[in-house]
Each structure stands twice: as structure tokens, then as C-alpha cells.
Amino acid sequence: MIIKFSPFAPLPGHFELPIVTLAGDVLTINNEPFDFTQLPTGATLPADAIGSDYFAGPVDRIAGELHLTLKLPTGPNPSRAVAFPEPITAVDGPVAIPFDPEPEPEFAGLVA
Questions:
Q1: Chain-centroid distance, C-alpha 109
Q2: Could you read off the pLDDT of 44-97 as tens digits, one per residue?
Q3: For residue 47, which phi and psi values (nearest 5 degrees)?
């Protein structure tokens, strides 16, 4: 499965980084499975037919392989890797979603 990402800056608290896993042609996002096993080669399933806000475009099966785009929530100042993510080839198991770690809190000064 080829997964592309479409970065966007959501309103705080409105869209979280998804937990994504893959098992064959079943992509699970935050415990909700999306089964694409019935999508034949050369077919396209429009994003609005999928019924999930996490898909940023259609799902295509090209030469037997699924191709899709997922929305990628970012912070206000994403790194280059998150702002311009490379497509990934996902295999069964957890899918590595590009993200920026939370910044470490800054302390103005410590009093002993």
C-alpha cells in the first residue's frame, strides 16, 4: 500500500495524529477498519464514499497495489519532514505517520 500525506494545521483539539495499522488491504485508523479488499485493479473509490475525515483523496488500486492519501495534522511550525512528507510503502503492522515530537517545556530558572 502506497500512502501519501496531505499536511494541514487543524484547530487545536479538533484533529489528532491518527493511530494507523495495516493488515492486507484493511487499513485501520483509530480502531476503525477500512476494508479495500473488494476494490479491483484499475478502480477508484472516491474519498466521500469512504466516510472518514482522515482520507484526503480517493483510494486507487493500480497494478494490484492500493494508493491513498491521508490527512496529516501538523503543529503551527512543522518540520520539513512533516510539512513535505514523502510517500511511504506500508506493510502489515503499525504505519509510521510523520510527526514532530512535542517541544520540551522551557524553564525560565530553577530555584533551589
A1: 39
A2: 999 999 999 999 999 999 999 999 999 999 888 899 999 999 999 999 999 999
A3: -60, -40
